[in-house]
């Protein structure tokens, strides 16, 4: 019996870096624990610009918390079901459940802004490399 190994969970929540050792160690446990709700995309929009977009229909800005602690960006949504009228659903296809998604960020990643339009949460990120790690031009002196 052959077993297929998927590397997709390794890259799904890692933005702006390739730390294979850390990812390989945690991929097996994290991929089993992670929920796919709400659906999200990770985009590279420029050389150092990234975006996370999440489909959070039914949530308002006050229902969602975004926190950054060290290299982990955490997005948490809490439902307000107690405020809704008691109704009988004939069919319930829209998920109304709390969620928590975590994304590991690379060194020098900065959260620029977060906004929500039409049920899509967009978190903009920027990689700011420190001056010491940027390439430097070295002048060549001419000696006679």
Automatic annotation (TrEMBL):
<dbReference type="InterPro" id="IPR008978">
    <property type="entry name" value="HSP20-like_chaperone"/>
</dbReference>
<comment type="similarity">
    <text>Belongs to the small heat shock protein (HSP20) family.</text>
</comment>
<keyword id="KW-0346">Stress response</keyword>
<feature type="domain" description="SHSP">
    <location>
        <begin position="31"/>
        <end position="143"/>
    </location>
</feature>
<protein>
    <submittedName>
        <fullName>Molecular chaperone IbpA</fullName>
    </submittedName>
</protein>
<dbReference type="Pfam" id="PF00011">
    <property type="entry name" value="HSP20"/>
</dbReference>
<dbReference type="InterPro" id="IPR037913">
    <property type="entry name" value="ACD_IbpA/B"/>
</dbReference>
<dbReference type="InterPro" id="IPR002068">
    <property type="entry name" value="A-crystallin/Hsp20_dom"/>
</dbReference>
């Amino acid at each position: 019996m052959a077993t297929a190994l998927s590397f997709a969970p390794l890259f799904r929540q890692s933005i702006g870096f390739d730390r294979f050792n850390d990812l390989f160690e945690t991929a097996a446990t994290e991929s089993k624990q992670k929920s796919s709700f709400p659906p999200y995309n990770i985009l590279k929009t420029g050389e150092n610009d990234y975006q996370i977009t999440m489909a959070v229909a039914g949530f308002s800005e006050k229902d969602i918390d975004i926190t950054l602690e060290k290299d982990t960006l955490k997005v948490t949504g809490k439902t307000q079901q107690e405020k809704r009228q008691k109704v009988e659903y004939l069919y319930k296809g829209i998920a109304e459940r709390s969620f928590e998604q975590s994304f590991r960020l690379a060194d020098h990643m900065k959260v620029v802004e977060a906004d929500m339009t039409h049920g899509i949460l967009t978190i903009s990120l920027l990689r700011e490399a420190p001056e010491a790690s940027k390439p430097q031009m070295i002048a060549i002196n001419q000696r006679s």
